[in-house]
Design brief:
Low-confidence stretches: 1-33, 128-135
GO molecular function, one term: peptidase activity
Region (Disordered): 1-39, 346-366
Distance between the termini: 177 Å
CATH superfamily of the domain at 121-235: Band 7 domain
Largest sheet: 4 strands, antiparallel
Order of helices and strands: HHEEEEEEEEHHHHEHHH
CATH class of the domain at 121-235: Alpha Beta
Organism: Devosia sediminis
Subcellular location: Membrane
CATH architecture of the domain at 121-235: 2-Layer Sandwich
Shape: rod-shaped
Mean pLDDT: 75
Structural class: alpha+beta
Radius of gyration: 62 Å
Family: Belongs to the band 7/mec-2 family. HflK subfamily.
Number of strands: 9
Helix content: 40-55%
Number of helices: 9
Amino acid sequence: MPWENNGGGGGRNNGGPWGQAPGGGGGGPRRPGNNTPNLEDILNRGRDQFRGGLPGGRWLLIGGVLVLGAFWLLNSVYTVEEAEVGVEFRLGEPKPDLSTAGLHFHLWPVETVEKVSTAVKQTNIGTAAGSGSRANADDGLMLSGDQNIVDARFAVVWSVINPVEYIINVRDPEAMVRNAAESAMREVVGRRPAQDIFRDDRAGIAIEVQQITQAILDSYGMGVSVNQISIEQAAPPAEVADAFNEVQRAEQDEDRLQEEARSYANTLLGDSRGQAAALREEAAAYANRVVQEATGEAERFNAVYAEYVNAPEVTRKRLFLETMEQVLGSSEKVLVENGAGGSGVVPYLPLPELGSSSRATTSTGQ
């Protein structure tokens, strides 16, 4: 060894480069009772063992190769379940073909595989019990266009349509879907009054949020499709729920009173229209009757005139007699002619009737 001659003197020094054996003695063989092994002896024993070869070394080598082969085969074979697709990557570059359901093989570790579920997924926003570990009780609180606070709870139904983009372009796709849908809902609610999301236009808001969310996810190239936005609940926060309910009841009373007023107005309007129609019918009947009477009188006059043209004297005398008949027919006067026919009639003067007649004449004249 190189340190055999470094201990001074010409003798053999088995104690090492410092000229003393590990046991405290000088060079020379180990003394009895000294259990510290000599470094040279250890090296000699190791060299002898390697010269003889490893015990069972060939079988050990074969077993190691088999274990490594089984481990490589176990990592090279993979299974794709139903409603899943596999995307194989060769040195980080995605292969063009997707792996469908079944058993597949790839060259591990040169090739790796990522499995993506193509089933429909649902992300709940605003509900702590259904939103996962990232849920927050204030996720659904947002400000409406009329400065009211709305607690909206809704669900996003979506699915993967491009697995390669879904894996590569975004680190956390589910969180991205949540953030995009929540941002879209806040934008739409912030431009509308609170009544729209409470009851008036939930369907319109859901469609608009779906379109905005899809546009945001497409801009990031996520490879997902937003199938539906379902607004499960929209209500004011619990702190102001009582005051909001009072406002709702007042609005309902207002609507009820307006309906009653419209009903009363319609009733009066119907009655008025009915009376107007009756008056118009009566006026039309009266006008028709007057016209018919006038037409009849005119025709009668024309007929009399035609007779008068043919026989003026006879017609004149007839008209005189008919007129006198009409005038004297309603009179109470009695005519007594002089002569033999009237000699036996005793004149009678009705004093009470003459008195009442004179008083009536005097009052009429005044």
